[in-house]
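stage 2 :: seqdesign
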């Protein structure tokens, strides 16, 4: 009886601590956007007490989702990327799939901050699709918000508006979600919609969304600062000078609440753009120089390009042509190196307009052609990314559909039986059932019927591969084996990389880390052509972990007399053949 009292007392003590932690987590969802530096400190304090919770794995993932967003808010994209990558793999390992789209969104946002659309777009697509499948409206709203930002950057206003409309329509469903994770503030969605409405020539609609954003009760701290800056931009477009100055003063009053140098530099850059647009060149130049110093110190090339682009315009407007062109060429050089076609397009447009105002129409025409070329490269670049991803996704879906059809064909006859045969078929089935029942009742032992080999649940990794090979031989299905040399990777990073690779594989695909520093991936029901498609899908993921050398994956397709060792040898020969340089002749 005493033991039961002790257990009951322990549970009563633990329950309030658990509910208090959940309350803190709900507050973090707000503070991570309002005061990210303070939120990061609170997150570190909560992490030290995770062992006192009833479900530490789920809470740890949610804590890391908040931490990932805090890193993004503070401009620490590399830290956000690493944290999201590891926790996405951990969520899959723990079978907490509902957490995965939040980390995919975090990775996508970090890549967008780097200007790396090639990595960001597929992650956004995967996060949105997974959020819909798992019924996670919070993650879906976050994914739509990120995609709308990208569409707005590349002037795809129609698709950006549709994404924002859908996200706003989904907001009421958030309260019905069982587990609350991370959610983008609705004020950001409303202010983004207001800016798009202004660009589309809908001032009344823009005003409605702007009022909703500014009157949001949760718009404090950094959220209030960003809302004031965006409201000042809208007032500038509407030529409302007094209203613009009112919003800018409100934004300046919030600068003291920022907790990091990057946040302050980013705010300076945005305020400087408004000052430049309103003719306050001295104030704009002072703020931009402070921003550029911070961005260069933190090696943030994307933010540096934006600040240089504005500073060059300030100097050109003050007839300091040499200095302005020097700064613009510096921005263009970085944008070319990073293949940031959007920034290139904006820089060339400024130079074309400037030289046209100086009546140097030859140079203006040249820069206008470069502007059009950059815009075309931007569109083609994004289209190629989407098409390559959609093609690979469609190929995987066709493969799964093909396997399902084969499985169905093995069970159901292809030809439709005529109606006249059905009575006889029913009689035969009844007779067969009677014989089976009578044999089961008889004490005589029947002979064991040979069955196809199945994969044993407790089999080792090598045994599973051999069983799958034998099954494919008996059934006559195609099978392929991929071999990847992992000697150039850090051993502590291998488990996370393998978990990330599994997100691109099917459930029936088998993976095994061999003893000779090689990763084996067995693909049942996969021909050599389709295995090459899988290699192309996996290469992009492996390159994130093995950046020092070219990714080389060996391939072997099953032959009737193959063993596992013979397939591994042929795959390694294929790997060596791909490494061999091709003759110029």
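stage 2 :: out
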């Amino acid at each position: 009886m005493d033991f039961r009292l002790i257990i009951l007392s322990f549970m009563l003590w633990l329950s309030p601590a658990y509910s208090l932690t959940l309350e803190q987590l709900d507050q973090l969802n707000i503070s991570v956007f309002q005061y990210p530096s303070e939120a990061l400190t609170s997150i570190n304090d909560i992490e030290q007490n995770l062992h006192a919770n009833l479900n530490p794995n789920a809470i740890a993932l949610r804590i890391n989702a908040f931490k990932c967003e805090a890193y993004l808010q503070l401009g620490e994209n590399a830290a956000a990327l690493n944290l999201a990558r590891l926790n996405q793999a951990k969520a899959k390992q723990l079978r907490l799939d509902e957490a995965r789209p939040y980390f995919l969104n975090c990775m996508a946002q970090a890549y967008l901050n780097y200007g790396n659309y090639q990595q960001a777009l597929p992650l956004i697509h995967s996060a949105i699709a997974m959020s819909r499948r798992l019924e996670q409206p919070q993650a879906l709203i976050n994914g739509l918000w990120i995609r709308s930002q990208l569409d707005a950057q590349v002037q795809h206003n129609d698709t950006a508006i549709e994404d924002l409309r859908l996200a706003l329509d989904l907001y009421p469903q958030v309260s019905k979600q069982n587990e609350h994770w991370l959610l983008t503030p609705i004020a950001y969605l409303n202010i983004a919609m207001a800016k798009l409405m202004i660009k589309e020539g809908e001032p009344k609609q823009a005003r409605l969304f702007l009022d909703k954003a500014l009157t949001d009760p949760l718009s404090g701290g950094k959220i209030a600062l960003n809302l004031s800056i965006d409201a000042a931009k809208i007032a500038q477009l509407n030529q409302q000078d007094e209203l613009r100055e009112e919003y800018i003063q409100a934004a300046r009053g919030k600068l003291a609440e920022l907790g990091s140098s990057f946040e302050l530099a980013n705010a300076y850059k945005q305020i400087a753009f408004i000052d430049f647009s309103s003719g306050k060149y001295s104030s704009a130049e002072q703020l931009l120089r402070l921003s550029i110093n911070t961005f260069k110190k933190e090696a943030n090339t994307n933010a540096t390009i934006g600040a240089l682009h504005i500073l060059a315009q300030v100097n050109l407007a003050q007839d300091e042509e040499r200095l302005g062109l020097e700064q613009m060429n510096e921005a263009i050089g970085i944008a070319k190196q990073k293949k940031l076609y959007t920034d290139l397009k904006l820089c060339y447009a400024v130079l074309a307009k400037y030289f046209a105002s100086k009546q140097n129409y030859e140079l203006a025409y040249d820069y206008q052609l470069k502007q059009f070329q950059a815009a075309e490269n931007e569109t083609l670049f994004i289209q190629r990314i989407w098409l390559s991803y959609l093609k690979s996704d469609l190929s995987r879906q066709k493969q799964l559909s093909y396997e399902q059809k084969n499985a169905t064909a093995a069970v159901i006859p292809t030809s439709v039986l005529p109606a006249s045969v059905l009575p006889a078929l029913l009689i035969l089935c009844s007779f067969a059932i009677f014989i089976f029942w009578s044999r089961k009742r008889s004490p005589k032992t029947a002979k064991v019927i040979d069955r196809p080999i199945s994969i044993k649940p407790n089999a080792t990794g090598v045994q599973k591969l051999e069983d799958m090979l034998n099954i494919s031989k008996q059934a006559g299905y195609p099978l392929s084996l991929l071999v990847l040399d992992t000697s150039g990777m850090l051993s502590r990073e291998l488990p996370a990389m393998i978990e990330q690779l599994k997100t691109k594989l099917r459930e029936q695909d088998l993976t095994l880390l061999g003893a000779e520093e090689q990763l084996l991936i067995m693909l049942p029901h996969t021909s050599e052509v389709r295995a090459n498609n899988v290699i192309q899908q996996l290469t992009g993921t492996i390159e994130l972990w093995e950046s020092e050398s070219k990714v080389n994956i060996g391939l072997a397709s099953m032959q009737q007399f193959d063993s596992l060792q013979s397939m591994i040898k042929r795959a390694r020969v294929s790997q060596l053949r791909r490494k061999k340089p091709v003759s110029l002749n």
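stage 3 :: structure notes
- The first strand starts at residue 479 and ends at 485.
- The beta strands are 479-485, 510-513, 518-524, 553-557.
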